[in-house]
Design goal:
The structure is a single chain. Helix 1 runs antiparallel to helix 2. The longest helix has 30 residues. The strands form 2 sheets. Strands 5-4-3-7-6 form a 5-stranded mixed beta sheet. Strands 1-2 form a two-stranded parallel sheet. With 159 residues, it is an alpha/beta fold. The two termini are 38 Å apart. The chain is elongated and about 70 Å long. It folds into 2 domains: 71 residues, Orthogonal Bundle (Helix Hairpins); 68 residues, Roll (Chitinase A, domain 3), CATH 3.10.50. The model has no long low-confidence stretch (mean pLDDT 87).
Length: 159
């Protein structure tokens, strides 16, 4: 059996995954079981679309639970976070030369991306360009409409 590569998660990401798994194994599982029970009461299950749909949802839920359990089992929490250079678990404050503004990016593993809250993956184009860079360095990143130029003003541990 081939050993799975560890999935990197922040402490926050690990906790969020645990909470979602608890919800799926408890509340969500009970909701689907209730739907199956109600659908069975409609009579002949061989032509009962509500029953079929609920059973399919149950199968998808079980697969998702197994996947999440495997992720948690193989997860490695990123806890040794250095602010000497950009890596997972830091917030990078950048100065954007083009727009003359500052922007903060939280660098996270791919499993924790949240663009709305400026959480970008270390594997994204911006994350890759920032990785390993230090405070004061300037970087240029190829973006769809050209080249974006930034200066790293600060690197701090994401709270």
């Amino acid at each position: 059996m081939e050993e799975k590569e560890a999935i990197l998660l922040t402490e926050e990401g690990y906790k969020k995954l645990e909470d979602e798994l608890t919800y799926l194994k408890g509340t969500k599982k009970m909701e689907i079981a209730e739907r199956i029970k109600v659908a069975r009461e409609f009579g002949d299950i061989s032509e009962n679309s509500e029953y079929d749909e609920a059973k399919n949802e149950q199968a998808q839920l079980e697969a998702k639970i197994i996947e999440m359990e495997n992720t948690l089992r193989t997860a490695k929490i990123v806890d040794k976070i250095s602010t000497k250079s950009v890596g997972i678990g830091v917030t990078v404050s950048l100065y954007d030369y083009e727009f003359d503004e500052n922007i903060d990016y939280h660098i996270v593993p791919a499993t924790e991306i949240d663009v709305i809250n400026n959480k970008i993956s270390i594997e994204s184009p911006v994350g890759k360009a920032l990785f390993g860079k230090k405070k004061g360095e300037e970087i240029e990143i190829e973006v769809p409409n050209g080249i974006a130029k930034y200066r790293i003003d600060d690197i701090k541990k994401t709270v």
